[in-house]
TrEMBL record:
Keywords, sorted A to Z: DNA-binding, Transcription, Transcription regulation
Domain of life: Bacteria
Matching PANTHER family: ARAC-FAMILY TRANSCRIPTIONAL REGULATOR, HTH-TYPE TRANSCRIPTIONAL REGULATOR RV1931C
Domain HTH araC/xylS-type: residue ranges: 185-283
Keyword Ligase: no
Species whose genome carries this gene: Mucilaginibacter pineti
Name of this chain's protein: Transcriptional regulator GlxA family, contains an amidase domain and an AraC-type DNA-binding HTH domain
Keyword S-adenosyl-L-methionine: no
One annotated GO molecular function: sequence-specific DNA binding
Pfam families: HTH_18
Gene3D superfamilies found in the cross-reference section: 3.40.50.880, Homeodomain-like
Amino acid sequence: MDKKKIAIVVMSGNFLMDFAGPADVFGHANQLRDMYEVVLISPDGRTVNSAGGLQINSERLENLGSIDTLLIVGNDQESNYDEFYTWLAGAHNRIRRIGTIGVGAAIVEKAGLLLDSNYFHTRDGQLYTSGGVSSGIDLALAMVEEDCGRGVAAAIARKLIFFYLNRQAYQVQFGTLVDTSPIAVQLKEWLAEHLHESLDVGRLAEKMNMSPRNFTRVFTRQTGISPAKFIEKLRVEAARLRLDEIDEPLEQIALRCGLGGLVSMRRLFLRHLMVTPSDYRRFLKLQKYENCN
């Protein structure tokens, strides 16, 4: 059986993980089914420089022949690739799947093919899009699942994703004092409904009918942590649970849980859970793969 050719379009300024991650997925699939041929190409066939300065050799389009899946990792916004756009506009009907990773969606749009973007990955007919970096791995796993089944995709995920530990390992640790503190227990339920709001010591003290100074002193003595740290932990745990239960964009989860934005959310997840939000979501997807097999 002829192998399916996976052509990954790379450009200068790419992050290595944008194309190396998906390439690894198809490479691991070959160890189980031996059905893919993965090649790196660029619009002009020249050597490209990654964002980290590494040089990447690529092939020219005319040397490829038939393409089953085209993955576009676009980043070089300053170069003129009109010839490539024209080729893509004319060739897309002969390609079974076209996927974009990160800003590769802009390349597809310049060729006249429109995509509805989503944070992780989505599909519209033959067109797929993903948010970039590690979400490109999710896109490649979805394609392998289409071709080889969920079992093969799950086996690859187990090899590539190193944090498929028991989910209990990813819970925020509050400490036993917080669990038994009267003041923390009284506040916890109310705070859960107001995490998206501004929560300073003054507001919490007012809720407990105490002065800010006395509230801070009593709370810290009973729980062993400051009110601000307590709220931070509650927000991270609320975001973790929301990732667990609801499929919505990370930005929206960050706002709903009072974490400010993606940058702040990522920093706090690493501090308290030692995993990024996107990696934690991928861990959940891996568990879903395993539970369905």
